[in-house]
Amino acid sequence: MAISIHKTVSVPIAAFLLSIGLSGCGKQSGPPLGYVEGVVTIDDEPASLVMVEFQPVQGGGSPSIGFADENGYYRLQFTNSRPGAVIGTHTIRVTMDDDPTPDNTAPLIDIPARYNKLSTLKAEVKPGKNRHDFNLTLSRG
User: Fold this and answer.
1) In this predicted structure, what is the pLDDT of residue 103?
2) With pLDDT > 70 as the criterion, what percentage of the chain qualifies?
3) Bridge pairing between strands 33-42 and 128-131
4) Which tens digit of pLDDT belongs to each residue from 52-107?
5) How far apart (Å, rounded) are the C-alpha atoms in residues 44 and 121?
6) Topology of the domain covering 11-136
7) Domain residue spans of the chain
8) Alpha-carbon span 117 to 112, nearest angstrom
9) Do strands 33-42 and 85-86 pair parallel, antiparallel, or not at all (unpaired)?
10) From CA 19, how far away is CA 58, in angstroms rounded?
């Protein structure tokens, strides 16, 4: 299943991704990556309109970002031309894509800070294919 990142991204994130994508000028230079995909659900329902960010814990490396489709499926991109995420442990942040496309009118949900700003979510990215599904709960428990 091919997914294109067609959602509107904030200007700073778009500029950052573009600058990283242009820095290699066609070369596949940079850190080794693992391919990462998965599904995000909120209270057991597919989460559309969310952005998933994998931020490496070690060394302050560049994050990878993916956008969930209507089924909650996401695929991470390190740069425009390199899918995946840096090998190692990551802090995961899930935020709402607050500028949806006209064909996706899912309601915006207030995602608790424990999944974004103060995230407690972690995942290990290994070489090769990785599957990381996240079931977020809105309850305070």
Assistant:
1) 61
2) 72
3) parallel
4) 999 999 877 899 999 999 999 999 999 999 999 999 999 999 998 766 565 655 56
5) 17
6) Immunoglobulin-like (2.60.40)
7) 11-136
8) 9
9) antiparallel
10) 22
